[in-house]
Design a protein that fits this description.
The chain is an alpha+beta fold. Helix content is about 20%, strand content about 35%. It has helices spanning about 5-20, 30-50, 95, 235-245, 285-290, 315-320, 375-380, 395-400, 420-430; strands at about 55-65, 70-80, 90, 100-105, 110-120, 125-130, 155-160, 170-180, 190-195, 205, 215-220, 225-230, 250-255, 255-260, 260-265, 270, 275-280, 295-300, 305, 330-335, 340-345, 350, 355-360, 365-370, 385-390, 405-410, 415, 440-445, 450-455. Strands 23, 24, 25, 26, 27, 28 and 29 form a seven-stranded antiparallel sheet that branches. A six-stranded antiparallel barrel has the order 1-2-3-6-5-4.
Amino acid sequence: MNRRLHAAMWAGLAALMLPAMEAPAGAEDTSDSRQRLSADFREIVQAAKDQVFPSVVFIKCLRESHESGEKKSQEVAGSGVIISADGELLTNWHVVDKATEIRCLLLDGRAMRARLVGHDKDTDLALLSLEGCSADQPVPCARLGDSDRLREGDFVMAMGAPWGLNRSVSIGIISCTRRFLPPASQYSLWLQTDASICPGNSGGPLVNTVGEVVGITTLGTYFGGDMGFAVPSSTIREILPQLREHGQVQWTWTGLQLQPLRDFERNMFFDAEEGIIVAETDADSPARSAGICTNDRIVAINGRSLTARQEEDLPDIRRWIGLLPRGEAMSIRLMRGGQEVSVELAPRQKGRVEGEELDCPRWDLTVKAINQFDNPDLHYYRQQGVFVFGTKYPGNAAEAGLRHNDIVVQINQQEVTTLEDVQRIYDAAMGKIDSEHRAMFTVLRNGDQREIVLDFARDYERE
């Protein structure tokens, strides 16, 4: 924040505060009042910062990566905040994803390792536990606040370790309390702020002026001005118990794709004041098996009335449905063609939302299991299978013409449906590499099947 903007912010804040706190006419010079009020707010901000800043943690992880066509170890940095005296630490899922080692640096200089307690890709949250905490060596902790009480214009601070430079604090306001981001708002809306959020701030706390954590900073953008986004503490409070107990959020899956009554983006407006529209149902889903149809209007589930007038209303409804017990039939009341219809369906456990990965070093490629949530386009062609995740360049797979997202149907005329199939065929090929160094791949590329011969005679690792 430049000096001119900084001065304008404090002067503007003082002007906003002055009418409610003005002294009687003639009692005090107005310019003196503005200076005092500005100083008072700085003290408020400083006090709030002091409550949380000691609990902000600088995180460094060693993670495994397969994107480049080979298994690599890389170091990533992020932030976190301690939320309990026994060392519970909140951060983002993407900070610790696939981490093999997690190291944390506290404000007082203590370095500690941490273990992963639970994580959830859908909300981009993870819960860690600092190792080595004890009653003799307590750690500072922050308290979770209530993000539902925030209003646009409220001052907040973003704390963390931007660009891997240990820790810092920036200040701004809440720009929007209910920001809907289509690719990332399945189960939660976002808090939008103009407090500076840079790479490395991920996982750090968003703090209000009374020293409470009201969000976990997650996303930042620099196009058209600073915009940052945080997961609200209201969402965090709902999923924390599951992270502690199960190590994951046990989301259930119905296959319902929902649409608001007033869908401005699609220019679709439904003649109703209550309910939520079924845009479609996923194939082989409980919703489709129950007979729910496109354009059905759901008005209640398990006796609870549901209404989504705008897209901002969707995440709360999806989260509530996703946290219903799996396997237990839920009653749905809906309107279809002017008639009320009642159906029942039993949601299934959602399970993994990303496939596992495998490295095939001599072939110079990595493969990954197809997952309906992570790879819906590939899942359309093959519900259970494996695809080329990455090809090393230069390397044998790239030279042969294999590409990212090729679905592997067969290798050497042997059916491939799992990573175990690939591992078995790869091991067999390596066992006779002195006499045979070719593998025939049958792949699906954009729905078209083709044969590709992979010659792995060259050892690019040694060259």
